[in-house]
Design a protein that fits this description.
This protein has 399 residues and is mainly alpha-helical. It has 14 helices and 2 strands; from the N terminus they run αααααββααααααααα. β1 and β2 form a beta hairpin. α3 (75-96) packs across α14 (373-383) and α9 (234-264) crosses α11 (276-297). The radius of gyration is 21 Å and the shape is globular. The two termini are 22 Å apart.
């Protein structure tokens, strides 16, 4: 029995890719808090080639780690522990990190001369802001921190169900494992995801509203629950290895089609991107990419390196801070007239560097001041939500 650092590597890589993705939104055609004056559809390819699978895979990996945790803790105990780990960073982030993002939006996008202190006051008291079109709007949002809220919600739902009907969920897991073999491992989930895009997404598009985000909830909760029901089963991971080559071929085949569709239809063309053709390609690409990453990722299951342990501890800090840091840098670049497409790579590097420096400073401060140790423990423990110590045999043979 061995640890599974491959899932740690996947998780860390997804969070780092998230930073690249968010920076690309500044330069692409999609709406975002700050936009460069040199927007180009070239950066939309980052969205098209990463967004379909990135978050879904992250929720699956989180579910797989939760399956291991449930082997050691009762559902109620785990639910209480995760509430502590997830809600404290979420609440602190919403209070302290979102107002600077709103200030950047109001200053650059709306052209409003407003101080950061005034933004904090109006945001925390739910007072309206006057926008450029003359309308008044109360702004209170989770922005990128939505992942913590959604993950807590799904953890609460699944652990409650396990307390009430754990044997039924095990039966469902047995039923799924029996059918997700060979071609069925690629075909049945793909059909589900395509139908979900065709039927649910047009009515409930992705909107980061935890109350009315039904497409995202069905998609991400399914992936999270799938990780819990299947993540602890050795045969499931062995089946992933068996189909990973076919999944990789399928994913690579979708790439030129997606880029060709993007060339013909901008991302703003919602009618096309919710059409049967786009749903078929997008859904197939999402699942094939996830299976290929999970399958080939097992080749890294015996990799142990101090850098991986360090990144596991640091990645939550990067995730929580990165969008605020990125937008503050972008706001200054915009003011200096330097927010052209050439700023993409420097903005990525500067965001990573500042997040890394903050993590190191916080880590050292907590060691010097014992009273801060509880907050440090929360940060470190939360990064272990997907810490891969899943105890089942690791496939060792590559294709």
């Amino acid at each position: 029995m061995e640890r599974r650092p491959d899932l740690d590597i996947i998780r860390v890589s997804i969070f780092l890719l998230l930073i690249v993705y968010h920076v690309s939104l500044i330069f692409g055609s999609r709406e975002f808090l700050i936009k460069s004056s040199e927007n180009t559809s070239f950066f939309d390819s980052v969205h098209v080639l990463s967004h379909p699978w990135r978050v879904s895979l992250l929720f699956f990996v989180s579910g797989a780690a939760t399956a291991f945790s449930l082997q050691k803790r009762r559902p109620g105990e785990l639910r209480s522990r995760r509430s502590h780990q997830l809600l404290i960073p979420f609440v602190l982030g919403v209070i302290l990190l979102i107002p600077p993002q709103i200030h950047a939006f109001l200053s650059v996008h709306e052209g409003m001369p407003i101080s950061v202190g005034e933004v904090f006051r109006r945001y925390l008291t739910l007072s309206p802001f006057q926008l450029a079109d003359g309308s008044w709007r109360v702004i209170f949002t989770m922005e990128h921190l939505w992942y913590l809220a959604y993950l807590w919600l799904y953890t609460a739902i699944v652990t409650t169900l396990m307390s009430v009907c754990g044997s039924t969920l095990k039966t469902i897991g047995d039923w799924l494992a029996a059918r997700l073999k060979g071609a069925g491992l690629l075909l049945w989930p793909m059909i589900f995801f395509v139908l979900l895009r065709l039927i649910v997404m047009p009515q409930f598009p992705h909107r980061l509203d935890i109350i009315d985000d039904w497409y995202s909830h069905i998609l991400y909760l399914t992936c999270f629950a799938g990780g819990i029901l299947l993540g602890g089963r050795a045969e499931f991971w062995q089946n992933l290895v068996m189909v990973r080559r076919a999944a990789l071929i399928g994913a690579l085949a979708c790439v030129p089609v997606l880029l060709w569709m993007l060339e013909l239809h901008p991302l703003a063309d919602n009618r096309f991107w919710s059409s049967p053709l786009a749903s078929l390609i997008d859904g197939g690409f999402m699942w094939c990419t996830a299976v290929a990453i999970l399958g080939y990722g097992q080749m890294l299951a015996t990799v142990h390196h101090p850098a991986l342990s360090y990144l596991n501890r640091a990645v939550l800090t990067y995730y929580v801070l990165h969008q605020t840091v990125m937008l503050l840098i972008a706001e200054q670049l915009y003011a200096m007239g330097w927010l052209g497409t050439g700023a993409f790579l420097p903005l990525v590097v500067l965001t990573l560097l500042i997040c890394g420096l903050f993590f190191e400073g916080w880590r050292r401060l907590c060691h010097l001041m014992p009273r801060l140790q509880p907050l440090w423990s929360i940060a470190v423990e939360t990064t272990r939500l997907t810490k891969a110590k899943l105890m089942f045999p690791v496939p060792r043979k590559a294709d």
